[in-house]
Specification:
Layout: H1 2-21, E1 25-33, E2 43-50, E3 58-66, E4 69-78, E5 83-84, H2 86-92, H3 97-105, E6 111-117, H4 125-134, E7 143-149, E8 156-158, E9 160-163, E10 166-175, E11 180-187, E12 190-197
Antiparallel strand pairs: 1-2, 1-7, 2-6, 3-4, 3-7, 4-6, 4-8, 5-6, 9-10, 10-11, 11-12
């Protein structure tokens, strides 16, 4: 009886460990804080909205749908101590009304963290190009993308790929008459979905 109980305990512990090691997924938002001066002094802030609590400081790779391949943007770094509630995030910065409404539109997440880009020397070419484009004045253009924990070494990955020892599939699709976008992950067979409103042009 003790051997059976021990076997059940070991099996349960292994299952929990595997679940904890599975990549964390979510959405990265880089959003400008309005300055009341046509964006001349706007400051951009990074936040990630993810499917579970971070146990450690974590690096994320961003994924953007590029047809048969997904482009990889490396990387965003997050401290495990940088968790914040949506209510506190909305109060902390003077967001424009449309940015605040956008943050409220995001669905599928469980935890929010303030984040930062990794140093330029650690960014890949895609991220450096994005940073350059978003830095052109006035720096008011918001940006968002799906994310997965871990540093993906390649600039592109197919719709199904492996990272961090996990089998991952990723896709996006428009929703609600192209007024929203859905990011769909499958990690080791477990499906996770996130949706957000699309900013008007």
């Amino acid at each position: 009886m003790k051997k059976v109980a021990a076997s059940i305990f070991v099996g349960l512990a292994c299952s929990i460990a595997q679940a904890q090691q599975a990549p964390v997924v979510g959405v990265w938002e880089q959003l400008p804080v309005g300055d009341g001066q046509d964006g001349q002094n706007a400051v951009r802030h990074d936040v990630v909205l993810v499917d579970r609590k971070l146990a450690d400081d974590t690096v994320f790779s961003a994924l953007t749908d590029a047809g048969k391949q997904n482009s990889v943007l490396c990387c965003i770094k997050v401290s495990k101590n940088a968790s914040i509630t949506l209510a506190d995030l909305l109060k902390k910065y003077p967001w424009d009304d449309d940015i605040a409404a956008h943050l409220k539109s995001i669905m599928g997440w469980k935890y929010i963290y303030e984040a930062k880009l990794v140093d330029a020397s650690a960014q890949n070419a895609g991220m450096r190009e994005l940073v350059k484009n978003l830095s052109l004045p006035p720096a008011l253009s918001p940006y968002s993308a799906a994310i997965i924990s871990g540093k993906i070494g390649s600039d592109q990955v197919p719709a199904t790929f492996s990272t961090g020892g996990a089998s991952v599939s990723f896709s996006t699709r428009p929703m609600h008459g192209n007024n929203a976008i859905q990011y769909k992950f499958s990690v080791n067979g477990t499906a996770m979905e996130f949706t957000e409103a699309v900013f008007a042009d």
